[in-house]
Amino acid sequence: MNVFVNEKRYEVENNTTVFELKESIKKDADVIVYNGFIIKADYKLKENDKVVFIKKGEIPKSEDMQAMLMSRHTPFVHEKIKQASVGIAGLGGLGSNIAVSLARIGIGKLLLIDFDVVEPSNLNRQQYFIKHLGMKKTDALEKIIVDCNSFVKIEKKEIFIEENNIIETFKDIDIIVEAFDNPVSKALLVNTVLSKMKNKKIVAASGMAGYFSSNSIVTKKIKENFYLVGDGENEAKPGCGLMAPRVAIAANHQANAVLRIILGEE
């Protein structure tokens, strides 16, 4: 019978248990992840089960690191995720949070697009730190992603998205994420994709300002290739600013929409 330990195939006897496997492979493991779930009780192994053994405080070998990073996933989803490429247009409150979430699930490639630098007012909701002030957002976010998951392929473009560069910019990307603050740029990117890039999927956002109910932020499938996240109402304006909780909720709606597209759960 075949099972996978840290993504490597092992042949074991029928009726072998997880704890028996631990004794033969890594006796000192403190954490056992069995098919995406940390277990305390023993289980009898089945064909193609996935097991990860982890010793707390131990830095794993490079070849084992990716398996450990992905160990809490549902089995066999990572194979699809690591083949996908996602372009994120805008690396502010939405884009920086989306990028980190996608990196943590093990996305294969991220195209990071922004022409701006990190400044103090970004720190109230964006995934940057004081040490990143003055850095290009593309460079700062790349460093953050590498610290989360060094296996993600990253491409950076410090450009302003305009009608004449959208098609070329995203031609090799599977899924496009609109994460702009500027409503004009939002509309331009979405409309260009819908009219000229119908083979691409786009996930956009509108309405996540303030501290209104979390439950009013929803994901809607507007067209076959167009998904919209937000409450559709509460835009940023004087007296209604952008705050970390609702922005991050919307960002992770977008990241989850991307994940569901990749896994065919649309």
Automatic annotation (TrEMBL):
Gene3D superfamilies: NAD(P)-binding Rossmann-like Domain (3.40.50.720)
GO process annotations (BP): cyclic threonylcarbamoyladenosine biosynthetic process
PANTHER family named among the record's database cross-references: THIF PROTEIN, TRNA THREONYLCARBAMOYLADENOSINE DEHYDRATASE
UniProt KW keywords: Nucleotidyltransferase, Transferase
Chain ranges of the THIF-type NAD/FAD binding fold domain: 78-265
CDD domains hit by this protein: E1_ThiF_like (cd01487)
InterPro entries xrefs: Mopterin_synth/thiamin_S_b, ThiF/MoeB/HesA, ThiF_fam2, ThiF_NAD_FAD-bd, ThiS-like_dom, Ubiquitin-activating_enz
Protein name per its UniProtKB record: Sulfur carrier protein ThiS adenylyltransferase ThiF
